[in-house]
Amino acid sequence: MQQARDVLRQLGQTTAPSGRRTRSYLAPDQDPVKHRGIQKIEYDIIFSSPDYDPDLGFMHNDFTLSNCIVDNDKIVGLVDWEMAGYFGWKAAGEVHAKIRTPQRQSFSHLDLPEEVLDDVLFWTDLYTI
Known about the structure:
Blueprint: H1 2-12, E1 24-25, H2 32-36, H3 40-47, E2 57-59, E3 68-71, E4 74-78, E5 85-87, H4 89-100, H5 114-120
Antiparallel strand pairs: 1-5, 2-5, 3-4
């Protein structure tokens, strides 16, 4: 988990191009919901809330285990960059928590052992400091 947070922090230290002060996807699109398959809830989280992030930086914005290339238990690469852009930690964290990660209650009917459930929910709190 710590290595994943370190990767996120390193990406987030990449500042937006000169003059950019507001949230945006890396590939701007007038209607990302229609053209790029961005969920409306994600669009609302990113663009309907206050658009000032004191920590505006580059975020992958789809940082899940399935998008990581791992070698010898270390993250060595990331794929699936179409959701990437310039956001603050809080906005990216809210998208991650509400859209990208499974919720514990979704598995309650399966009566899974806690260690299995922990594996499934491993990255749920990735943006929690």
